[in-house]
Structure formats: C-alpha cells, structure tokens
Amino acid sequence: MAYSLCLNYSLSSLSTNRQNRYLSIAAFTNPPLLGRKLRVAVIGGGPAGSSAAEALSAGGIETFLLERSPSSAKPCGGAIPLCMLDEFSIPLHLIDRHVTRMKIISPSNLSVDFGSKTLQPDESIPMLRREVLDNFLRCRAQSHGAHLIPALVTHLEVPASSNSPYVVHHTTNNSRKTLAVDVVIGADGANSKVAKSIRAGNYACAIAFQERIRLPDEKMEYYQDLAEMYVGGDVSPDFYGWVFPKCDHVAVGTGTVCAKQDIKVYQRGIRERVKDKIKGGVVIKVEAHPIPEHPRPIRVRGRVALVGDAAGYVTKCSGEGIYFAAKSGRMCGEAIVKASQGGDCMVNECDLMRGYLREWDNKYLSTFRFLDLLQNVFYGSNAAREALVEMCGDEYVQRMTFDSYLYKRLAHNNGWEDVKMLINTIGSLMRCKIVGKEMEALKF
Amino acid sequence: MSISMALFSSPPPSPTARSPYPSLKPHFTHKFSLSPQPNNNNNNKKHFLFPISTPKASSDNGAGISGASATVDEARAEVKVSEAVKESSVGPNGAVAVVDGEPIAVTKFVDSKWVDGTWDLNQFEKDGKTDWDSVIDAEVRRRKWLEENPETSSNYDPVVFDTSIIPWWAWVRRFHLPEAELLNGRAAMIGFFMAYFVDSLTGIGLVDQMGNFFCKTLLFVAVVGVLIIRKNEDIENLKKILEETSFYDKQWQAAWQDETSNSTKK
C-alpha cells in the first residue's frame, strides 16, 4: 500500500513537471487568424462528436461534422444517467423506457432488488435507442451551425509544420475529397482512424456481445421497467451478463476482456440463466462491439484531440460510455472555443492539454479509478461476486450507487454509514471467500 | 419404471460420470431415504452412500445419490444424472413421493433442508441449538453444485439466503481460531529463536532487548511478516497486487508522460 502511494506521488510529480511546462508556455498568446474563423473537423457523429460540434459551433467556430452512416443503429446498452437529460437538454419523448428496478443475480442465484425501495419516485434510468439519440444530437449540432458531411474518413494527414492545416481525406458517394482544417477532434469510436493517424497508441478492449430478442407479451411484461444483471463464472469471467429492456424487445448479452474467443460460450451461459424468462422469444438481431478498457496512451497530440470511445472513456465495472463520450466532446469543444477566443485565434497543443485534458482528468479520474478498484475486487471470482450481490442488498449501498450513477456525484454526507458499509463489505468478502475456499476443498 | 435423480457432481472414480444413464427416462422422482455413513476423518475424501428404495438403483459404481426430493405438487422433473460423492452429517426423511412430470431436462438444486429459497434453520438443530457448521457445509455444497451446473434463475422461487444470516461468532470459531492458533504458534517460535539468537550474539537478555528500539523494530517486522506472508506464494501474490493497483492509474497518466516525442510530431 505504501509502495503504491509512493508510485502515485512520483507519477503525479512527473505530470506536474509537464503541466508546469505547459502552464508557463501558456503565457504566449496564440497568433490571431486574419479574416477567417478557426476551422475544426469533428470526425465521428455519435454523442461525443455531436456534443463537440454543438459546443464549437455555438461558440462561433466553423465546424465540420463527418459521420459515415448517419442512420445506423449502434449496438449499445442505451442507458443514460439522469444528469445527462438535464445537462444535454434531451427531450423526454426520446426515451423509450424508464427502468425503475434493477435486479442483480449472483452465481448461486441470490437475487437482490435494486431500486424498489431506494429510488425516488421521479428517478429512473432512461433507456433510449442509440439511433434516436444520436440523430437528435446531430440535428442540434447542425442547428447551431455545424456542417454535417456524410462521408467516410479514410485518413488524416498530419502537417509537418505548426502553421499548416490538417487535411482530412474522405469519400462521399465514391468520390474522394479533402478538407483542410486547423484542429481535429477524433470522435470515431473504438477503432478510431484519427487515433491511428496520430499514433495515439492502442488499448485493451473488451468485447460486448448481445442478442436482441423479441418476447411474447406476458414475458415482456416482466421486463416492463426492470433490467437484470447476472454475475458468475458461467456468464462472464470478468464482467457481467445483462438483460436490458428496449423499446419492444430485450437485449440479452454478456461481455469479457480476457476470454474473447469464448464469448459464444458465455452467451449461451446467460441464455441458460434466463431461459425461463425468455422462453418463446425470437432473436431478431445479433451484434457485438468492442468496449475500450482504459484510455489510450496519448489523447492529445498536436492540434488533434480524442474524445469519447476513441479516447477510451468507458468506466470499468459498469461499462458506461455514452455520458462520458458526450461530456468529453462538450468539454473539448468548449476548451477550443475558450482558447481561440471564439474562433479568432489559432490554438495549440498546450491549450488542448490544459483546457480539455487537465479539466477532464481532474473531474473524472477518481471516478474511473474507483470503478476500476470495484471491478478488480468484485469481479474476480465467484466468491467475490457473491459478496458483491450481498452488499447490494444494503440500502445505503444502493443509495450511494444510484447517486453516483444518476448524478455523477459522490455524496458523502454520512461518515458513520460509510464506515458501516466498509465493515460490511469486508465482512461479506471474508465470509464469501471462506465459503469459496471450502468449495475448493470440496473438489478434492 | 424409470427414475430421475438429481445428483451432485464431483470427480468420480468411475467412467460413467456426468452422463445420464441411457435407460432412464425422467418420469418419476423419488425421495430417497438417507442414512449417515461413518466418515473417515480425512477431510479430503468424502464418501456417501445412500440406500435407494427402488430396484433401478445402481450403486454398482459406488454412486451416491443426494437427497432429491420433489413433492407431488411441483411438476418438475429432475434429470441431470452424474456421479455423486458428497458428505452429509445428518440424514432425515424417509418419505417417498412420486411425481409425474414432463420430460424436460431441468436441473435444479433440491435438498430437503432448502425450503423457499433459503435453508430451513429448524432442520439444522442439534441439542436444541442451530448447528451453524452444518449450515455452512450445506451452503458450500449448494454453491459448488451451482457452480458446476448453473441454474436458470426464476421469478417464482427466488433465493434469499445470504451468508450474513450465519452469526459472526460461528465463522470466527470455525475458521479464524484455528488459523490464529497457527499464526500465534509460528510467531512464538520465531520470537523465541530470535531472542535466543540476539542474546547469544550480543549478550543482551530478553528484558533489555525490549528496551532497545532496533529490537522492537525487528519484533514488529517479525509479527507483520508472519501475518502477511503465510506461504512462499504469498510474496509473489503481494507483488502482483501492488502492480495491479497502480496499473490503471499508470494508463491514465500515460497521456501526461512522454512529451519529448510530441514536439517533433506537429
């Protein structure tokens, strides 16, 4: 423990050196652009790209939003936190379903109801269709003045000098075009071309695999406002399986990082676990997509910034990415607007690092770190998963979880309850570990 | 007449493990009478033989069959047949029930003491008090069974048992105390020999050693060492844990490192 504290300290002192250098460089002002506004290309029109484009164009910058398939339905859970509705002014008619109950089910089928007692009557987890949400955000960006270009970006030419523009090569209707811009925001997802062009480095990805199943009405009734999470070695070795209700069907899926080649086995495992509840259902779609596990080594290089999935802003433990994608896009856009003073000056790398990356890390690094800790502790073995489900039965834990998920805040208002929760956590972990060890002994 | 049995699985001595007896059709379920068998005290070998009240009972391969019970009301048929070797220390119930069920292969954990999704503590009484050790054993067996044969979750008979029902002192008495005895013994042995060793080298007796700061530090290190490092593998595990805890943080901080190559890459 002391060793990791020392490591943290030395890492942060290294980073402050770099920050100090950038802060001192900030004393130089950027050269003003004569006769034109700053041009920014946002590559990728999902939540991250659309929010960035909206922030940029609302700030007066000439924005180009490039999206390769504006009407595709992305494979995604589709759950967003409540704070996103407020912060991004999302109209309520886009919401398909309000999930007010969650069930988490342990390997030994101990099931705990999450939310029936601890959610306030006006609180819920909104579920939307990604194509509906993405379309809305894109149209809003357009209404603020962003130019939407439906095109596939083939590659990004990085200029040799700091005054030349970035050239975005893209194809529309089989014709190749180029676009010269000053700043690029890469919001093109887990297989980001922008990241490749700036050699941002790779990251480990988890694979999320799900089947959309249309259920008969009486079975769908059960999932009216209920989402289920299944943990267990048969469902996933390091993640969870889920049943999420969507507009008129359910999505049954699972994910894993370390055992991607066995994903079909785990999918069968989750199907087995919910067999009775989805009996009579018809699979209407099968989809899979990669989920980044951690940020890329380089998130800003030159005048290119990565946001959203391209940067790797997906939390561990819950796999939440939509809110962080949109928020990072917005923060990056706002940073550029501020640094360029409404589009009148050029920006440089330090502006992006200071205004966007440092702000982002300050705000969300502890959240991400905490969820990583939870994943390491609770998703490692069946015994730990049992302990997790036991802990979830506690009302204080449920309230804290909802607060931190729905509003992205950690409301530590009751120190005594925190201590009790910690003691209970340790107790549960120890008991379940003992049972686990006895189970091991039973084998022989 | 055919029998369907639900069995606990475990590495069996015979090759017919985990495969349904081909001649069995899941039409009936019988409740078997159990009788406790003498335990050989070796914890590692747990054998359990049940006399079965039907002619089809094939104990030829030494299979033990767990108490499978289904009442007439529940039209569930258990099928999964596998070798079972299991230990139990109580054996009640002699009722035999016959169930007419549909031939669907459904695996479910059933035990006479598992009632309504939790262990019926009344059935674990010994001398008028609940025998928590056997509750723990029963839960271990149940979880082992479920790990090998994951069960469909159901809305109608939810599981409500969790380990906090068992009181803390039952856990302490069974698991903590033996370990504590072991560690205290080790610490005492190390302490004695260290004291002797230091005394023989420096001539300082035990009482005077305790007055010295360096000796007190050594004592502290010895106690902490005994607590943390119990086996040789623990050292490796500790190193791995330390690395893991800082790994995620390193990935986040990576964006702030390595700026020398940046300035040339505009």
Give the neighbour order of strands across the main sheet of chain A. Answer: 5-4-13-14-15-12-16
Biggest beta sheet summary of chain B: 2 strands, antiparallel
| Count of runs of 4 or more consecutive helical residues of chain B | 5
Number of E strands of chain B? 4
What string, H for helix and E for strand, traces the elements of chain B in order?
EEEEHHHHH
Task: Indicate the structural class of chain A.
Answer: alpha/beta
Secondary-structure element order of chain A, N to C: HEHEHEEEEHEEEEEHEHEEEHEEEHHHHH
What oligomeric state do these chains adopt? heterodimer
How many individual helices of chain A?
12
Main sheet record of chain A: 7 strands, mixed
User: How much of the residues of chain B is beta strand, in percent?
Assistant: under 5%
CATH-defined architecture of the largest domain in chain A: 3-Layer(bba) Sandwich
Q: Report the helical percentage of chain B.
A: 25-40%
Function (chain A): Catalyzes the reduction of geranylgeranyl diphosphate to phytyl diphosphate, providing phytol for both tocopherol and chlorophyll synthesis.
Domain FAD-binding (chain A): 38-71
Organism (chain A): Cephalotus follicularis (Albany pitcher plant)
InterPro entries (chain A): BchP_ChlP_pln/prok, FAD-bd, FAD/NAD-bd_sf, Geranylgeranyl_Rdtase_fam, Geranylgeranyl_Rdtase_pln/cyn, Geranylgeranyl_reductase
Q: Could you write a compact summary of the structure shown?
A:
With 444 residues, chain A is α/β, with parallel strands linked by helices. Chain A has helices at 2-25, 47-58, 82-87, 130-143, 193-197, 217-222, 263-273, 322-339, 349-378, 382-392, 395-406, 415-443, and strands at 39-43, 62-67, 97-99, 101-105, 111-114, 125-127, 147-150, 152-157, 166-172, 175-181, 183-186, 205-214, 226-230, 241-245, 250-256, 282-292, 300-301, 304-306. Chain B starts with 113 loop residues before the first strand and ends in a 13-residue tail after the last helix.
